[in-house]
Amino acid sequence: MDPVSLTRQLVALDTALHAESEAVTMLAPALEGAGFAVDVVEHEPGRGTLVADWSTDLPTPPLCLSGHLDTVPLGAAPWTRDPFTAEPDGDRLYGRGTCDMKAGVAAIVAAAVAVASRPARRAGLRLVLTAAEETGSAGARAAAEYLSGRPSGPLLVAEPTDNRGAFGHKGALWLDAAADGVTAHGSMPHLGENAVTALARAVVNLDEYAFADPPHPVMGPPTLNVGTFHGGLNVNSVPDRAEATVDVRTVAGQEHAVVRQSLSACVGERVRLVPRVDLPPVWTPADDPWATSVAATVSQVTNEPAGEPVAMTYFTDASVLTPALGGVPTVICGPGAPERAHVTDEWCSITRIRELTAVLELACRDWCGQ
């Protein structure tokens, strides 16, 4: 199975608008033909996550490979390339999802099919190809519930890292902030309570907020960004409602419940903070034997030094899957470059796709005892 051709087939499917099941329908027969037992777990009608098992009855728990099938929309800016063709241009494949992360999924499937052509002596494989990652990992949550109680080995997520083995990523705590007031005529503001000014004061406090937690030695410091602010309906009324959204990226060692409590104290009693996305950070110690072996394999295949341990700033389905699978060692490694995710004229290196396929095949054969 050629991972570049498979990437192009996946890119041809527009999976930005709740259409991941088309990708599942395309991939399932190839995996079943290779000997995988395939199930589709729906988190809502018509939106399914593919779970494929091969030789998972062996004494050692299976290695788990995961990637998401959904993409973000194209955006308003025009593309200079057809976003759903992925015609090769030198070493580049252009198209929505080439980087984030259909090339990673294609490498997973191609490597898994190759490994399944030979018997496993030690352990099998499990693929979890998810829906709805981009909007908060709903597909991964459904898969985690489905897999509850089943033993699992380590987890590799093929999100874009430019083929660097990352040992974790920051968490995402997205909060809806809201303030209520009392409306009144704009000429008599003393008769009302202004929700906009109440929320504005809270936003200023958030802008000046300092986390008590020290920076993580690899992830760095946690961050906070106020992404949106809306309030009021018309110029000549005291606004009785104002809303904002807050994006907090946490680091290993932080508890989201504690962070929320501290932020609630920062904004004051007039403002409510309600979680929209709550995905914890993921971190595997840099001396973990399996993680270091994957990093060594990456270095061997790419002919690039492993360097110091790294972590990603974005979240992945590992926020859900890693704890659900029992806190297993987790590595993020994918062929896309992080800075090219979600952009107009998104692209991925063909060389990187083939490299990752080789990395995954070697890592799988090593875990499976082939």
Q: Would you kindly provide a brief summary of this structure?
A:
This protein is an alpha/beta fold and 370 residues long. It has helices at residues 3-11, 20-33, 98-115, 138-146, 195-207, 256-267, 289-302, 318-324, 350-368; strands at residues 37-44, 47-54, 60-68, 88-89, 92-94, 123-130, 155-157, 166-169, 171-180, 223-231, 241-250, 271-279, 282-283, 310-312, 330-332, 347-349.
Question: How many DSSP helices?
Answer: 9
For the secondary structure, the number of strands is: 16
Oligomer: single chain
Q: Distance between termini?
A: 19 Å
Reading off the top of the CATH hierarchy, the class of the largest domain is best stated as: Alpha Beta
- Give start-end ranges of low-pLDDT stretches: none
Percent in strands: 25-35%
Roughly how many Å is the radius of gyration?
Answer: 23 Å
Biggest sheet details: 6 strands, mixed
* CATH-defined topology of the largest domain: Aminopeptidase
State the helical fraction. Answer: 25-40%
> Which structural class best describes the helix and strand composition?
alpha/beta
Cα shape = globular
CATH architecture of the largest domain: 3-Layer(aba) Sandwich
Mean pLDDT: 97
In CATH, what is the homologous superfamily of the largest domain? Zn peptidases
Return the string of H and E elements.
Answer: HHEEEEEHEHEEEHEEHEEHEHEEH
- Across the major sheet, the strand order is 1-2-6-3-7-15
